[in-house]
Amino acid sequence: MPNFEELGISSEVLKGIGELGFQTPTPVQEEIIPLFLETENDIVGLAQTGTGKTAAFGLPLIDQCDTDDDSTQALILSPTRELCVQIAKDLENYGKYVKNLRVTAVYGGASIENQIRDLKKGTHIIVGTPGRTLDLIKRKRAKVGGITTLILDEADEMLHMGFRDELDAILENTPKDKRTLLFSATMPKDVARIADTYMFDPLRVTIGKQNSGAENVKHLYYQVHAKDRYLALKRIADVNPDIYGLVFCRTRAETKDTADKLIKDGYNADALHGDLSQSQRDHVMKRFREGTLQMLVATDVAARGIDVQNISHVINYNLPDDIEDYIHRSGRTGRADKHGISISIVNFRERSRIPHLEKILGKKIEKKKVPNGPEICSKQLFNMIDKMEHVTVDETQIEPFMETVMKKLDWLDKEEVIKRFVSLEFNRFLEYYKDAPDLNKEDRRDSGRKDRDRGRDGDRGRGRDGNRERGKREQNRSQDRKGGYIKLFINVGRIDGVNPPRLIGMINDKTRDRDISIGSIDIAEKHTIFQVSEQFADKVIKALSDTQFKGRHVRVDYSGEVPGKKKKKGKKKK
Ligand code: ADP
Ligand code: MG
Fold it and tell me: What class, spelled out in words, does domain 483-558 have in CATH?
């Protein structure tokens, strides 16, 4: 197996990737890098996510860049803001020791003025989403007229997201003699059309079965009644105390709803979907990336391309309609040689799609039983015991207390002490899973009330079970998360011009408090329902009520049930 040097990578770039810990090229890098450097052909690369495509095109691209020349030499198009930021950051890391290399990311949902300012300073490589890039090309700010290389990353996804017209327009605006590389996990018709129309006799590289990402992923499914999906999800989380997972839902509403329930039930979870403002999305992603957040519930689009290391589980809250989506989803785990598990929660109807999916995957999807109460309890218990055995004891800190503690516990023998400490941590699980129903039964009549009303036990916090460190870092935020979010109603909606940034702006403006965390925002025609953390609800209501929004008198109130408060749906608060 050749190393990066033998593939022709310069010593400056070698130094950069050395710091990232890249030692041996992945298969896609081994194939693409020599083709990139030694030929001038267009290239179509078919490889799944997690195979290392960014470095496959990024390393040779940087090496071919003439940094003495200030002009823009390459354009990389990628479907989402998150991906653009990630690619730009990756390239900067690869090129850390390449003198004067400049990379600029441009994407929607952020100030175009700042991006224009960045572009003005001169940049060698632009990484952009199709929409914003086209906008900047039209404004003559992104100068792509002289590029020598165009890279279409995750082309299938860009088309899937409806960027067809933008792509066509951008491709028309770039020089005919440039070189084009197209990367895609799958090759649907519209991607083939792009290749046929805009690429000249491309070399095709398919990295199929060797794909380490997919190889390392184990696939399994649980079969339950549709109504038990959420209960099954909780059991998955409970039976994997150290889960670091991505939960996929089909719609934004389902994403919000599932994340809300998890938060309310004390799990360390949050949602990522298109209704969030850009800064909310950034915030959620940052927490997930740092590992502060254990479970991220997301839509396919919002999560596409996110490269987060070490994701232990991908959970399909239901099977995606599109099998390609399943492949993309499960590619989020098992990255860079780590092992991962892809779990699908499947109802009795969806079950019939499993064999087809297995055929496409070329892999067995194993049917597993939803874990039952005793299984979960023993898993949690041993996890706890294990942590206890490995905990660091700070002798000097606890020393002063030990004497009194020992004296106080003097009357208990060792077994008794252990029993009590274990119960202290563990009673909650025992209590919750006592008489918990078997979700595997096909004729399950009772809807698992027991499971459902575990309720708001904020203290049960996943941060605590899963990872004490994470838990600690999470502390500040979970302060305002205690009890979770509350839904508020406001009597202005889409026809009044409400959108998430405006609403957030208004809340910040009127409350003069930037710490208020705002959850999901549902904008209807004439009203909006939004979430704020419980402790700020009154403040927000007070600050916004009796103000004006675009000339309309504003009313804000609790929407629906409020714990400890009377239901005052839509009525003006006195
Ligand atoms: P893709 O674009 O194919 O989904 P990425 O380029 O995002 O994949 O790479 C997936 C992960 O693997 C990244 O975290 C990246 O840093 C890591 N990676 C890529 N190439 C190597 C390598 N040669 N050695 C070690 N890690 C690598
Ligand atoms: Mg990629």
Answer: alpha beta
